[in-house]
């Protein structure tokens, strides 16, 4: 598989991750019982932070939507990298590596603090980014696809 395709797959997976995080995590309603009680406690207890009155609910929502924004931007970046990889994938490998490390770390974090859904998504995204690192570049591909020397000789 070419780097451009694996980056496009990573882009789609990341966009789906952003969508599910936003719809399910940020816009979803807490279930009756313990979830509603926890949310109510997060909303009612307000405290002063750098001159602003905030609650843990404010931080929860702000950081949650921040994650949705970051995932969406990452999806757009991966799509653009997929386009750029068609001509210059070798020079982009350090970026693929940084994003692969990011999503591997997010998978560890999600495993510790959340649940299996984001873990699976982040492992798949990290795998696609890792694949892009090791996919042959167009120069390397041309080395493997060369015609035998006898066919290249022009007479």
Automatic annotation (TrEMBL):
What are the transmembrane regions?
59-79, 114-137
Q: Which UniProt keywords apply?
A: Membrane, Transmembrane, Transmembrane helix
Name of the featured protein: Uncharacterized protein
Q: What is the lineage of its organism?
A: Bacteria, Pseudomonadati, Acidobacteriota, Terriglobia, Terriglobales
């Amino acid at each position: 598989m070419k780097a451009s395709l694996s980056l496009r797959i990573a882009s789609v997976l990341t966009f789906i991750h952003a969508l599910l995080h936003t719809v399910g995590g940020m816009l979803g309603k807490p279930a009756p019982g313990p979830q509603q009680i926890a949310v109510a406690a997060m909303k009612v207890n307000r405290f002063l932070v750098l001159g602003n009155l905030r609650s843990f609910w404010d931080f929860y929502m702000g950081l949650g939507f921040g994650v949705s924004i970051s995932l969406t931007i990452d999806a757009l970046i991966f799509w653009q990298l997929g386009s750029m990889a068609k001509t210059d994938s070798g020079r982009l490998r350090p970026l693929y590596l940084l994003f692969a490390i990011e999503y591997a770390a997010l998978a560890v974090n999600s495993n510790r603090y959340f649940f299996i859904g984001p873990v699976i998504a982040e492992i798949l995204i990290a795998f696609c980014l890792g694949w892009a690192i090791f996919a042959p570049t167009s120069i390397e591909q041309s080395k493997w696809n060369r015609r035998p020397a006898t066919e290249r000789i022009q007479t």
